[in-house]
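User: Predict the full complex structure for these chains.
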Amino acid sequence: MSLPEFDFHAPGSVDEACRMLAEYGPKAKIFAGGTDLMLDMRRRRILPENVISIPGIEELKTLDLSSGMLKIGSCVTIARIVKSKEVAGKWGALCAGGKALGSCLVRNLATVGGNIASARPAADLPPPLMVYGASLVLKKTSAERVVSIDHFFTGTGATVMAPDEILTEIRLSEPPPHSGAGYLNLGIRNACDINILNVASYVALDGPGGAIKDARIVMGCVAPTHVRVLSAENLLLGEKPSEALFERAGEAAMNAATPRGSAYSRASAEYKKDMVKELTVRTLGMALREALGPAS
Amino acid sequence: MKKLIRVTVNDVRYEVAVKPNQTLVDMIRYDLGLTGTKNGCGEGDCGACTVILDGTPVNSCLVLAMQADGRTITTIEGVEGEKGLHPLQKAFIEKGAVQCGFCTPGMVLSAKSVLDENPAPSEEEIREGISGNLCRCTGYLQIIDAVKSVGK
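Assistant: Here is the predicted structure of the two-chain assembly.
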């Protein structure tokens, strides 16, 4: 199907893009990687009057690790995240999320910012980004603000971003010692697939072999947005990690999940709930193995 | 409104007037007449429209023609050298990796990108590298054999 008609703009800087957004108002749409937007436009789900193309803006393509913190420009492609040894070394679950996205062709276009800002509940990057406690930089002509990704999504396709704001950067602190994270996604096939379910888990231990002092579990595809499972997280805090404990956390996650079951959501609600438990237990195991280090 | 863009395709410079809602695959096929690039699903799932854009293989159905302004593209027509077919193309013929041929241009370009980045890819890396290109005829094994036979 052909694309609807729109005007095309390719600003050279973030400032220029912000000015365009302010000028054209809510009928303008940011084009980052385009891998979602092109489909939405073809299917007439999104009909922008003005398309503002930002993948050519250099300042949005920096991957900066100089401050110990990981700063990802919103137009860094998924392919770059997947291929980055630094990202794989410290933020392995993010790398795993990237590898699970689309195919290598799609990953060459799709951007980190786009995977967040499109706010799809089955997206691969939000769960790992949420367990790593990412913050997002939002810019507009007059101001800049930083919001936690925990408070970013308000519904399917909906976020706290104002129509004149652009997501410019994703910031991740370096995970503390004795911490680890895991990400798993469930689908029918490995490439070009929409997740049936995805879960990321993170644990930080109080020293080698110590109790769990911080835990985060995030699941996708079970609600209109990605959700943190606070009940399961709280159950882990202060406890020594064990298989039995992770089973209990998995059950808590299963009970907290409220998936919609229909052909449209790719699996029945019962199946999804069972798999929430399974993926939670498995990703907690992955997180623990990373936290304990290579000697474990 | 149409706008004039400049692109280099297979080492030839073109100036093309394109519409804002024109995709790169449509520009390549209809304005440049290079019909080796196929338009399949139009959604980035099948990979038939694969081209190499500034050294990176992409789905040209997901790129707007205007976004290609000033950039360099290789299509399947640019893979053949002065000495004839590219070794990868010869391997596809030898190993029976072509049946209906619709996926072949995209498949060859994705495989070429794998080999350009790593001349000795593992089978896993080959499979990963062509994961965005669907083939409904061969079952992929002959394609993987062909790429392996060119890899060192």
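The two ends of chain B are 49 Å apart (CA to CA).
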